């Protein structure tokens, strides 16, 4: 058994929800005759999703959604599996990255699955003649959904895409617990530094960044949050965090984590004021949250001092460190394995059932669509069953009370 297969077998043992869905797919073949094009992080958990869709009757072509998140042994294994083609390679340049996306589109999929919307954008901008072949798609992450919503507002999105990221089962588990735990795990594994006692600055207080803040606080860090939205800043304050502007917070930061989905969150002016020895890590999808051009310009010398760690030496003898080239640290760092398996069991189960929904409903109109509530609840139900947890059920009287407007004081 090759290494890729061994990794996939390990995650399967810890993905019971997707395993149950896979058994149903094997039996009913709900995706028979469909061709699915995917741009995701090609690693073992993703491979389990790919095999689930294949076992449901689909043919699959997949590539990576980030130049540093592919595990080559997993990609190679998938490429040798019946009904699956994988074009993903770790460490590709920009040209090679989009060439691989074009290879997926050459497959002429009728359903897309994306993480960051690069596949969808490439399709719309470079290959619009193929759009009529697509019945629908799904999007995994916050950054991708934001891009799709922007496309929709400009009337540029030409087919329906389910925003898997925005469903409660994704936001409250994958985004909060998955991003929080995997980000800090990757930082600790890459640097061999502890979190306890550190001054940690977290940029943003959305689902992902609040998860980072929560987990860092639980590990004993002193956490400061930066925000641009008044309500989110107030929420952070009420949750017990200090809230400051980045230019002030960064002056005392030991570690700074960005997870906002926006660019230049740590820009030139902030880098000028950075605390000596600070470690910068990004957990947003694209490598734009830390202004790396400004960092290169400000530094007298830049060198990789350890795999996944670049040191930027400033003229006044201060220095700072950037992890994983500013790419999402939980997957791009040398020891970044992505979200915990159990979390991705939920998210990829939602993906699988959302693709089934698309196959059953080819008449959906273009636009960003919600995950049907029954899918969200079904995944939660299966997960509780695998944990041997029972919950109460509403009585008929309680259901009537909750749906009636007549009952008052």
TrEMBL record:
Name under which the protein is recorded? Adenosylhomocysteinase
What is the taxonomic lineage of the source species? Archaea, Methanobacteriati, Methanobacteriota, Methanonatronarchaeia, Methanonatronarchaeales
**Organism from which the protein derives:** Methanohalarchaeum thermophilum
Its Gene Ontology molecular function terms?
adenosylhomocysteinase activity
Name the UniProt key words of this record, in alphabetical order. Answer: Hydrolase, NAD, One-carbon metabolism
What family, per the record? Belongs to the adenosylhomocysteinase family.
- E.C. no: 3.13.2.1
Q: Where does NAD(+) bind?
A: 141-143, 206-211, 227, 283-285, 330, 339
Q: Which SUPFAM superfamilies match?
A: Formate/glycerate dehydrogenase catalytic domain-like (SSF52283), NAD(P)-binding Rossmann-fold domains (SSF51735)
The entry's free-text remark on the cofactor is: Binds 1 NAD(+) per subunit.
In terms of InterPro entries, this protein maps to: Adenosylhomocyst_ase-like_sf, Adenosylhomocysteinase-like, Ado_hCys_hydrolase_NAD-bd, NAD(P)-bd_dom_sf
The record's listing under PANTHER family reads: ADENOSYLHOMOCYSTEINASE (PTHR23420:SF0)
Task: Name the needed cofactors.
Answer: NAD(+)
């Amino acid at each position: 058994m090759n290494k890729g297969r061994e990794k996939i077998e390990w995650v399967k043992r810890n993905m019971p929800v997707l395993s149950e869905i896979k058994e149903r797919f094997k039996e009913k073949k709900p995706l028979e005759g469909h061709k699915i094009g995917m741009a995701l992080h090609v690693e073992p958990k993703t491979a389990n999703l790919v095999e689930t869709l294949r076992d449901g009757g689909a043919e699959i072509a997949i590539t990576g959604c980030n130049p540093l998140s592919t595990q080559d042994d997993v990609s190679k294994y998938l490429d040798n599996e019946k009904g699956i083609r994988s074009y993903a390679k770790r460490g590709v340049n920009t040209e090679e990255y989009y060439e691989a996306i074009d290879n997926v589109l050459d497959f002429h999929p009728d359903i897309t699955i994306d993480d960051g919307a690069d596949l969808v954008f490439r399709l719309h901008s470079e290959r619009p003649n193929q759009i009529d072949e697509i019945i629908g798609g799904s999007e995994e992450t916050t950054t991708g959904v934001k891009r799709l919503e922007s496309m929709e507002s400009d009337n540029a999105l030409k087919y329906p895409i389910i925003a898997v990221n925005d469903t409660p089962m994704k936001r409250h588990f994958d985004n909060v617990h998955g991003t929080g735990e995997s980000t800090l795990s990757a930082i600790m594994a890459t640097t061999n530094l502890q979190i306890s006692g550190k001054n940690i600055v977290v940029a943003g207080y959305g689902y992902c960044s609040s998860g980072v803040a929560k987990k860092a606080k639980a590990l004993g860090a002193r956490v400061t949050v930066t925000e641009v939205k008044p309500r989110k800043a107030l929420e952070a304050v009420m949750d017990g965090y200090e809230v400051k502007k980045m230019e002030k917070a960064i002056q005392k930061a030991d570690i700074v984590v960005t997870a906002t989905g926006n660019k230049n969150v740590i820009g030139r002016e902030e880098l000028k004021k950075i605390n000596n020895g600070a470690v910068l890590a990004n957990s947003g999808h694209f490598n734009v949250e830390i202004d790396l051009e400004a960092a290169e310009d400000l530094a007298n010398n830049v060198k990789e001092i350890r795999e996944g760690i670049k040191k930027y030496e400033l003229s006044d003898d201060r220095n700072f460190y950037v992890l994983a080239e500013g790419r999402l640290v939980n997957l791009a760092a040398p020891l970044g394995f992505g979200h915990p398996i159990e979390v991705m069991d939920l998210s990829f189960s939602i993906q699988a059932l959302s693709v089934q929904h698309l196959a059953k409903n080819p008449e959906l109109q273009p636009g960003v669509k919600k995950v049907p509530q029954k899918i969200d609840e079904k995944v939660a139900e299966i997960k509780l069953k695998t944990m041997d947890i029972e919950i109460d059920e509403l009585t008929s009287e309680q259901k009537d009370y909750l749906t009636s407007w007549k009952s008052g004081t």
